[in-house]
Amino acid sequence: MPVELYGMSASAPCRIVAMTLEVLEVPYEYKTIDLMAGDQMKPEYLKINPQHNIPTLVDGDFAMNESRAIATYLANAYGKDSKLYPVDPKVRAVVDQRLYFDMGVFYKAIGDIIYPKMFEGKDPESGAKDKLKEVLGWVNDMIKKSGYAAGTDSLTLADLAFIASFSTLVETGSFDVSGFAELNAWFEKVKGEIKNYEKANGAGATAMGQWYKSKL
Amino acid sequence: MVWAPIELYYTPSSPHCRAVLMCLKALGLDVELIKLDMYQKYEHKKPWFIKMNPQHTVPTINDSGYILWESRAIMCYLVNKYNNDDLELQSLYPKDPESRGNIDKLLFFDIGSLYKSIVDYFHPMLMTGEGSDEKKANALKTALDYLDGFLSQQTFVVGDSLTIADLSILSSITQLEALDFKITGYKHLSRWLQKLKEDLPYFDECNKEGIDMFRSWARSKQGTNGNSENLLRHKKPIRCKTYD
């Protein structure tokens, strides 16, 4: 039985999981949970994820949420010896560091720019743009080292998490990213290294961008 | 083989530093503590520290030249590197994908939901004297409800033995205690907290000073901002689901 991914393509965290499945070549079935329609509150969904957020992964009798943890689970379970999540403790730790950084700093800084408009019709708080600029500078420096997000010589889960975040920002057009040369070069290169990129991430990022623009 | 002690750059009042310190102790590792004065001397903004960690955050470790920050990533690294194939140490972060999945899930829940909701709720009240925000209070309550739910099924946050997810979440929950936020309404969470305080031989050594420092600071802020009433109002959980 293929694994099941419950989510919505516009959601950046759901796209991290979809890209991980594509890169690991794990067959999966995508089950759309439409948050606007309230699918996440249906009893059958609450049974697999009482926190009723997305994404949720179901693999046989094992179910879990939290996108970045799902990505590490998939790499541990299906990517033995995969370069996507290296086993060397020092290299893996840098990938983990980037994943927590993505959640707590990078994606958060992007959310602080786009969510107030999308969900509350408000402008971002003062200081949010300066913060994002500083954060993008850090990300650019992380990538500068080797052309990949965790300083490795090939694609890792850190790149997948960063590309889900960065593509969302780019598609909303809410912030001028042209000054971050290495970051833009990395974006163009890494897109080409992810199998079925458009299906797994590109189309959803575009949808998120259109959604944001419709609220302006 | 003799290992040079791991350097831990930290400040006692940071819950994330307390979590890493507990992990070092749980693994029985030697540590050299390097305390940074972040509040008067801004030592984390000094060029030597920024060179090491451009994000200038604590905790940061230096393990014989290998530098890492992000507390949860540090804890995963420490167990991956120093479990010595000892089953008891490995159980802090077991290798099978399902257990790891459950632990990673809780670590991300801590950074993105639990600890985030604590900061979102208390930070504006402490820093600018704003009143209590009901929406933010509810987000915190919801995170605690989930946690209480997880703990209604098992002894620890993941399964029936201590993992790094417990250490991370313990540091967040004790930060709430330092803010005089009572969690006694959450039956399973209270039981778990009491158990860890009693069972972890390194609990006081790793936490007491930092919790006391943070509590004094938070109380002084309540005084200066004149919003103690707002904080007091939430001394009791507003309403919580019970899991039996």
UniProtKB/TrEMBL annotation, chain A:
This is Uncharacterized protein. Homodimer. Residues 88-216 form the GST C-terminal domain. One of its GO terms (biological process) is glutathione metabolic process. PANTHER family: GLUTATHIONE S TRANSFERASE D10, ISOFORM A-RELATED (PTHR43969:SF9). InterPro entries: Glutathione-S-Trfase_C-like, Glutathione-S-Trfase_C_sf, Glutathione_S-Trfase, Glutathione_S-Trfase_N, GST_C, Thioredoxin-like_sf. It holds the Pfam family GST_N_3. GO terms for molecular function: glutathione transferase activity. SUPFAM superfamilies: GST C-terminal domain-like, Thioredoxin-like. Residues 1-82 form the GST N-terminal domain.
UniProtKB/TrEMBL annotation, chain B:
SUPFAM superfamilies: GST C-terminal domain-like, Thioredoxin-like. Residues 96-238 form the GST C-terminal domain. Transmembrane segments: none annotated. InterPro entries: Glutathione-S-Trfase_C-like, Glutathione-S-Trfase_C_sf, Glutathione_S-Trfase, Glutathione_S-Trfase_N, GST_C, Thioredoxin-like_sf. It comes from the Eukaryota. GO terms for biological process: glutathione metabolic process. Gene3D superfamilies: 1.20.1050.10, Glutaredoxin. PROSITE patterns: GLUTAREDOXIN_2, GST_CTER, GST_NTER. Residues 4-86 form the GST N-terminal domain. One of its GO terms (molecular function) is glutathione transferase activity. CDD domains: GST_C_Delta_Epsilon, GST_N_Delta_Epsilon. Homodimer. PANTHER family: GLUTATHIONE S TRANSFERASE D10, ISOFORM A-RELATED. This is Uncharacterized protein. It comes from Tigriopus californicus (Marine copepod).
